[in-house]
Amino acid sequence: MRKRFIKGLFKFLVFTTAILCIAWLGLMYYFTQVNRIADQVRKDVKTQVQANHSQYLKYNDIPDMYRNAVIATEDRSFFTNIGVDFKGTFRAIFVDVGSKQTIQGGSTITQQLIHNTLLNNMSKSIEWKLLESFYAIGVYDTISKPETFELYANVIYFGHGANGLYQASEIYFGKKTSELSAGELTLLAGIPNAPSVYDPYINMKLARERQQHVIANMIDAKVISQAKGKQILSQPIILKGKIK
């Protein structure tokens, strides 16, 4: 009886694995041959950068401190997930549907990239959230993780009219991104979560509190030590034309 059960279970697992592999290959074919999502996302990001009179930053031009801060805070499994945090996505849908509010939260960096490109003109809804997840898997299938982060950093909105990290560096600090301090980079990393709330020109106190949250996440993710976090938070934040 036990052998029969094990044999049946083995067949079920083999069948399920085969179905999943076929489905995944089908998705890869769809996103590489039918709906070339990688080309669409790249084109959209480049178009936005040009329209905003900004400058495109390559992955290696994005400081490690900023990358680590964003990944630790926004999407800690970024380099290992398939573009979607299913737990976070379903939690967001369940909570928002239950409260009859706009779908929000639960998005990975890849999903945020989709939201700011292919779906930036679509109203938030359950359909929007599911489509965001579907396209995020398409990005995972067709774009490398470093390039995904690169595209994200060039299109994410920082508030105060700043689109992308390069423009945010200029608007807030009057510097090139490569010239920013660890304190300035971690402050910027926290803004996109709620740009109108954490805009340091409007409310430096809240922006600093958000920066503390970012630093705490980095310490928890073990990308910096507590001593380093304390040292970063001690650095002064000098805005362009305004000192806080």
In short:
Helices cover about 65% and strands about 5% of the residues. The chain has about 240 residues and is mainly α. The strands form 2 sheets. Strands 1-2 form a two-stranded antiparallel ribbon. It has a two-stranded antiparallel sheet with strand order 3-4.
Question: For the record, what CATH class of the largest domain applies?
Answer: Mainly Alpha
Radius of gyration: 20 Å
Adjacency order of strands in the biggest sheet: 1-2
Compute the number of helices: 12
Q: End-to-end span in angstroms?
A: 74 Å
Question: For the residues shown, what is the average pLDDT?
Answer: 85
Q: Oligomeric state of the chains?
A: single chain
Instruction: Name the beta content range.
Output: under 5%
Number of E-type strands: 4
Largest sheet: 2 strands, antiparallel
- As for the CATH topology of the largest domain, it is Penicillin binding protein transpeptidase fold
Helix fraction by DSSP (H/I, runs of at least 4): 55-70%
Task: Write up what this structure looks like.
By secondary structure, this protein is mainly alpha-helical. The protein has 2 domains: 1-34; 35-243, Penicillin binding protein transpeptidase fold. It is built from 12 helices and 4 strands. The strands form 2 sheets. Strands 1-2 form a two-stranded antiparallel ribbon. Helix 5 (109-115) packs across helix 7 (145-155). The chain starts with a helix and ends with a strand.
